[in-house]
Structures are given as C-alpha cells and as structure tokens.
Amino acid sequence: MTGRPPQREPRQRKQVLLRLDPAVHDALARWAADELRSTNAQIDFLLRKALSAAGRMPGSAGPAARRGRPPRNRPEADSDGDGP
C-alpha cells in the first residue's frame, strides 16, 4: 500500500458548437481576459453559476476544471528527488 489516494479516471469533456453574436463573443473574451480565463473557461464558469443559482446544477457534475497549467505527470522513478 503506497498511502496515496486512488486516482480517478478523468471524465471526457463534451464539445459543443456555440454560435454567438460577434459583439457578445468579444464582450465574453474581454471579460475572460480580465479574469485571466480563456473564453471557453469563462463560458463554463458562467453556465455553472447560472445552473447553481437556478437550483439546476446536477449532483453528478464534476468539479470545474482547475485554473492554470495542468500538473506535470512524473514517472515513479523520478519521485526520489535524484532526477534532473
């Protein structure tokens, strides 16, 4: 036993084609940039907020994606600290 919690398989994210008025897209992109998010992450954030406010967020929904660069997956052999 390694003492680590079991890792879950990442859930596949759905892809959706979204048609927006160019002015709405530009406003979303500016808002996202102000909050250091991508436009896609901003849309996801706003949809989750609206679902929660309406009491419609499904309990099975996974957590929001973490912000920033994903953690680097290091092989077990490098975990001893002797790696580069």
Automatic annotation (TrEMBL):
| InterPro entries tied to this protein | Arc_rbn_hlx_hlx, Ribbon_hlx_hlx
Where are stretches of biased composition, namely Low complexity? 54-65
Where is region (Disordered) located? 54-84
Stated name of the protein: Toxin-antitoxin system HicB family antitoxin
